[in-house]
Amino acid sequence: MTDKATKMTHPVLIFWIIAGWVGFCLLPWYMVDGGLWSFEWLVDGYPFDEDYAPAAFLIGQGEKLWLAPLLITLSLPLLVLPRAKSDPFFARILILSGALGFGWLIAQGFSIGIRGFNFAWLEAVFGELGDRQFGMGYGAMICATSFLFLLTQGIAARGAINGDVFVVSAIGGVITIVTAFVFFPIAKMLFAAFVTEDGAYSVAVFFSKFFDDRLWGLGCFWGAKCGAAWNSLFLAILVGFITTVLGLCFALVVTRSGIRYKRALRALTVLPIITPPFVIGLALILLFGLSGSVTQFFAELFGTQPTRWLYGMPGILIAQTLAFTPIAFLVLIGVVEGVSPSMEEAAQTLRASRWQTFKTVSLPLMRPGLANAFLLGFIESMADFGNPLVLGGNFDVLSTEIFFAIVGAQYDQGRAAVLAMVLLFFTLSAFYAQRIWLGKKSYTTVTGKGDAGVHPLMPSGLSVPVLVVALGWGLFTIIVYAMIVYGSVVELWGVNNSLTLKHYVTAFSVRFEEEGIRWTGAAWDSFWTTITIAAIAAPLTAAVGLVTAYLLTRQSFAGKNAFEFGTMLSFAIPGTVIGVSYILAFNVPPIEITGTGVILVVSFIFRNMPVGVRAGIASMSQLDRSLDESSLTLGANSWQTFRNIILPLLRPAILAALVYSFVRAMTAISAVIFLVSAEYDMATSYIIGRVENNDYGLAIAYSTTLIIVMLAAVGLLQLLVGRVQIGRRTLLGTETSP
Question: Which residues does 8 contact at the CB level (< 8 Å), separation at least 6?
Answer without folding.
Answer: none
